[in-house]
Amino acid sequence: MTKQQLFEQIQKKRSFLCVGLDSSLDKIPQHLLKYENPILEFNKQIIDATKDLCVAYKPNTAFYECYGKKGWETLTETWKYIPQDIFSIADAKRGDIGNTSAMYAETFFNAASSEMSFDSVTVAPYMGSDSVTPFLNFKDKWVILLALTSNVGHADFQLQEVGADRLFEKVIKTSQTWATDEQMMYVVGATRGAAFGDVRKLAPEHFLLVPGVGAQGGDLSEVCKYGLNSQCGLLINSSRGIIYASQGADFAERAREEALKLQQEMEQILVKAGLV
C-alpha cells in the first residue's frame, strides 16, 4: 500500500484508527475456548466488527510466537483474514545484522515462502542502517522505525543527549538518509504529548504509528494538536481498550462501540483540519 492509498482510506473511512490484535488466551472471552483455534476466532470477530471503522490492524507477533507452531498458524491466518484494503502491520520489532534482517523481511513480506505479506513491520534501529535496509528492499512495503516509545523505560536511552540531539532525534535524522516518507514511518508513543512537536520538526511528512491511546492514557486531541499533517500522518493504535472491552458473549459488539467512539472523534478532527 502506498502513502497516497493509505491517505485515501483515511479520507474514505474518516478514521485513522489502528486496532492492535494483542490477543491472548488468558484474556479473550472464555466461551471462545470451545473453538479449535480460539484466538483466530476472536480475531475474526474483532475484524468483522471493526473493519469499516479502522484503516489498519496491528498484530503484535509476541502474542502469537509464544504459542509455537499453532501461534504462527494463527498469525498467518489472521493476516489472510485482514481485508486487503486495510493496512497491515506486523508489530515484530525486529532488527539484526544484515543477513538476519533479510530473513526477517522474508518472514513478514514474502508470502511465497512464509504465507504472509504484511504491508509493514516495526523495526528497532539500534544496530544501524545495515539492520534496517533489508526491509526496504521490498517494493511498496514499509519500515516503521522505533523512535520515541510509550513505555516507562524510554528515557533510559531515547532521551539521552548525543551531541546536539537527543537519541530519538538522532534516529529520526539519520534514518531519513535510508528511505523517504513513502517507505518509512516512525513509532511515537501517545503518552509523549508535546514531544510530537519536536518529532514533526524533523519528520513533517512522515506517518507516525502512535500506540498508547486508551489503556495507557494517551490523549488523542493532544497527539493530533502536535502531530497531524497535510495527509493526516497519524495511525492511532488502540489494543486493549477495544479488543478487551468485554469478556462476555457481546465482546465483538462492545469492541465495535469503543472503535466507533474513536472513529467519531477522529472524524471531527479530520473535518476541522479540512482533510475530509
From TrEMBL:
The reply on keyword Lyase is yes
Q: Does the keyword Metal-binding apply?
A: no
Pathway the protein contributes to? Pyrimidine metabolism; UMP biosynthesis via de novo pathway; UMP from orotate: step 2/2
Domain of life, source organism: Bacteria
Q: Extract the InterPro entries matched here.
A: Aldolase_TIM, OMPdecase_type-2, OMPdeCOase_dom, RibuloseP-bd_barrel
Question: One Pfam family for this entry, by name?
Answer: OMPdecase
- Into which family does the record put it? Belongs to the OMP decarboxylase family. Type 2 subfamily.
Q: What protein name is recorded for this chain?
A: Orotidine-5'-phosphate decarboxylase
Which organism is this entry from?
Pedobacter terrae
